[in-house]
Amino acid sequence: MLITLQEVSKHYSGVPVLEKISLKIQMPKIICILGPSGAGKTTLLNILSQSESADSGRVTVHPELKLSYVFQEDCLLPWSTVGENISFVKEASPTSASEIEAFLEEVGLAAYKNHYPHQLSGGMRQRCSLARAFYHGGNMLLMDEPFHSLDYHLRFDLVQKLIALWERKKCAIVFVTHDIDEALLLGDEIMILSRHPGRIVKIIEIDTPQRSRSLKELSLLKIRAEILEQLLTAQ
Ligand SMILES: Nc1ncnc2c1ncn2[C@@H]1O[C@H](COP(=O)(O)OP(=O)(O)OP(=O)(O)O)[C@@H](O)[C@H]1O
């Protein structure tokens, strides 16, 4: 277990945001968090990254926990090339160059190693962020709506790239999204939060391996309908 939350609650200025959240994060599990705006999804990620503390409840962190992040914005250094944007996240080793090449290959950016972020499209920049997060090598990857600004086709492409990278590293991923399809394709568990305050209203487990999932599959369509119903009542 990398991190365990037991009945964690959080408020801001007396207003409850998260209430009694219990959650276990372990490798190699992908947990997707869905919920209305203001449900406390980012606050929950902040508690997991320990950049915010809980007001009550218990947060137990395994000493070997090592975090990587991918945010909504790509957060690339504009003055550095794609290769440099990836290499700076950890100390160089004799295998760094070949590792970076392999990750760039995996996300389809091998030919863009010496390009600068402004020479890339939004989708390419997010692919670079993905490669960087996996090169960094954390065992828990926190992702806050990372594909939010991209069109459906690009999001789908990045979800497939993320699955391919995760299959190599098998880290734990906590993925916040508003997109039900992303959650259906990625999650081993889909956690639905309500708001005012943010409570877990449902956790749905999906057994089908990510590689074999299709959004047209009847079982996923049924889960989709269930999630939609839960989300509409969680407002
Ligand atoms: N540092 C803070 N100080 C005061 N209130 C905060 C702070 N951070 C978040 N909040 C409040 O906590 C609530 C939950 O915010 P949070 O960003 O966690 O929600 P969210 O589910 O991620 O929303 P969205 O889907 O819109 O990104 C909101 O009402 C927000 O205004």
From TrEMBL:
<dbReference type="InterPro" id="IPR003593">
    <property type="entry name" value="AAA+_ATPase"/>
</dbReference>
<keyword id="KW-0547">Nucleotide-binding</keyword>
<dbReference type="InterPro" id="IPR027417">
    <property type="entry name" value="P-loop_NTPase"/>
</dbReference>
<keyword id="KW-0813">Transport</keyword>
<dbReference type="InterPro" id="IPR003439">
    <property type="entry name" value="ABC_transporter-like_ATP-bd"/>
</dbReference>
<dbReference type="Pfam" id="PF00005">
    <property type="entry name" value="ABC_tran"/>
</dbReference>
<dbReference type="InterPro" id="IPR050166">
    <property type="entry name" value="ABC_transporter_ATP-bind"/>
</dbReference>
<keyword id="KW-0067">ATP-binding</keyword>
<protein>
    <recommendedName>
        <fullName>ABC transporter domain-containing protein</fullName>
    </recommendedName>
</protein>
<feature type="domain" description="ABC transporter">
    <location>
        <begin position="3"/>
        <end position="220"/>
    </location>
</feature>
